[in-house]
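Researcher: Let's do a round of design. I'm pasting the structure tokens now; please hold your answer until I've finished.
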């Protein structure tokens, strides 16, 4: 398992892209929307030499990103860890008593499978486990 990306909730996508590319020197490698109910977000992926971040803005008031922005404001939304096999990682974590937000299990339009742990296990940090089965 290793750090895959950090998700950052932002209110103004273009302003955030400008900051992370111009000031911090990242490269915008893709922008896409995920209209899936319960997700409803625009995502911009910014790549750095050995890491990347995902900037997240809601596309509906019901989006978890909209709720996050309302409750906590802009900032780090989640930390994602890449695993070799998501289903196996979930099974092993459950054997250790970890619970997941089961309704978050999904595959993104870009092929990443993911699920979020219940944040009570990770000291309030929203933690994503993910894999890329087609890569």
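Researcher: That's everything. Go ahead.
Model: Designed sequence:
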């Amino acid at each position: 398992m290793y750090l895959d990306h950090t998700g950052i909730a932002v209110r103004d996508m273009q302003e955030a892209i400008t900051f992370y590319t111009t000031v911090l020197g990242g490269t915008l490698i893709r922008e896409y929307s995920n209209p899936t109910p319960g997700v409803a977000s625009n995502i911009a992926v910014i790549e750095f030499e050995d890491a990347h971040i995902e900037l997240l803005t809601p596309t509906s008031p019901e989006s978890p990103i909209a709720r996050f922005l309302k409750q906590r404001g802009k900032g780090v939304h989640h930390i994602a860890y890449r695993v070799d096999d998501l289903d196996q990682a979930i099974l092993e974590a459950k054997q250790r008593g970890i619970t997941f937000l089961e309704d978050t299990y999904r595959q993104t339009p870009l092929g990443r499978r993911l699920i979020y742990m219940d944040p009570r296990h990770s000291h309030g940090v929203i933690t994503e486990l993910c894999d890329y089965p087609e890569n």
